[in-house]
Write the structure tokens for this entry.
Amino acid sequence: MPMLSQQDLAEEARLQALHALGLLDTPREDRFDRFTRLATAAFDVPIALVSLVDRERQWFKSQAGLDYCETPRSLAFCSHAIALNDMLVVPDTLLDERFAAHPHVTGAPRIRFYAGQPLHSVDGQPLGTLCIIDRRPRTFGDADRRMLRDLAQLVQDELNRDVLVANRTRELQDKNATLELTMRLRETAEQALRQKQELLDAVLETVDVGVVACDADGHLMLFNRAARAFHGLDADSALPQAAWPAHYDLYGEDGLTPLAADDVPLVRALRGERVKDAGMTIHVAGEAPRRLLASGRALHGTTGEPLGAVVAMKDVTELDASRARLAESGEWLRTIADNVPALIAYVDTDMRYRFANERYREWFGVKTSDMIGRTVLDAMGEGFYAPRREALERCLAGHASHLEIEEQRRGRTRVISSTYLPHIRDGIVQGIYVLSTDATSAREYERQLHALAHSDHLTGLPNRRSYEERFAQAIARARRGAAPLALAYLDIDHFKQINDSLGHAVGDAVLREFARRLGATVRATDTVARLAGDEFVIVLEQVGSPLECERIAAKLLDAIRAPFALDGHLLSVTSSIGIAWSARPEQAAMAHAADDGLYRSKHAGRDTASVLVAGA
């Protein structure tokens, strides 16, 4: 058995994909006929076909304007489109040596024009075409090509409907399976969270560390078992803060001086102070004084709203045991921090991480355990550290900082907004609090709004608003550098006639090509803008003299005079130009002079330029 060539193998794969559809020799279906009817109407042609190219024949799944449903493949125009695997357009068959002697050209149906867009299987094999046929030669512009491609895409979707439905069904089944798994995982997570909460409650009631918490309004909400044992009382939510020291027998470290209400560790934490190992004494009547070290902080929700404050108190006589129990309480704070949608970290004065929440792993792929004790540079790398170094050093000097940095990590680009707050105790910086949020969506939205507000949607040039800003900036630069400036106003001659005779689509194409030629003719530092309609403007910086303006105008006129080849039309386009030049530019004077120059060019017969010295 002879080996098949690559071309033969490709053809066999194509035929296999065609036969897999199961459409050959099936009855006519309106879902395909509607497209051939639509094609004949849309393109004003007598014949439109949905053809499928088999091994030895071309078979029509739908035909409008023909009485037969297949032809030999050797006579099929569509076979050429299949081989090309791209749209085939033959404007005049008698002028094309491939088809001039074709029996369907010299005889019925007397094809003089043909356009066919290949139809593909879901895996990209060309199966046939949607084609249109006319008995007269014709042009076929870009808009016609787009329409034929769009119609062919709809036909292609119908050809592959069963395959697409099957694929979609599999996708939905996979998604359903994923959803079920996600639900099971969520149930597991919720159960684990409930167990964790139960465990936390149990821990709070069993540890020998006193835990006291209040809400955001300063009402006592929690005394755990150890706290109740320390004070001999439970939390009284109705008790005002001023009454806490006397009611709960709070004294200073000396055990003699009553503690002021503002010095109560929980009050300090509620004010936002991070309290660490604050010494105090609880002296309950009839019991031995108990010296405690209290540490606490304010609590915030996931969106930053204040929740209150919590203080953990340990008996210094059992310091070693207290440390282990306090670490368990720290899990509560860790859980809160890890569930905040932001990066939270604490860096000491040696630039070493002492705390980092779980978001660092999610955003940067760095485990928290690999960060603690290491410097920012070692843990995160030079690319992360370098743009933040100044903010960190400023913070260590006692000044808060804020900056935004665009980071690309783990295949994603983020705009990270970071705040650096110095941790100051007794006037000395102890470290740095770092809070970073993802500002990507907000910044992208701002960029999109700016682009829409400052550019012309048709040509892509700066619009009137952007031009006015740039012109003002150019005048300011010219004044600072004592440099001359030129301003050119340009109109397309008889543009309304182009629109009226050839249509707005051609008019738009003329505007785009006109804008392109202007940009290609002047310097990259010059500003080309579209004001409205066919009105354009160019800001020309550092143009030495009116004579140089005339040379620039000549280049512009020559660039525009070259014929415009657009959508099958060869157009002669000219422009009228007015240029204002000034050694000491003023915005209003230059605009008036450029407009006056444009007026003179039009009255001089158009296709010319007039250069005026502004203010002269």
Remarks:
- The first strand starts at residue 47 and ends at 53.
- The two ends are 92 Å apart (CA to CA).
- Residues 454-613 form a domain with the Alpha-Beta Plaits fold (CATH 3.30.70.270).
- The first helix runs from residue 6 to 20.
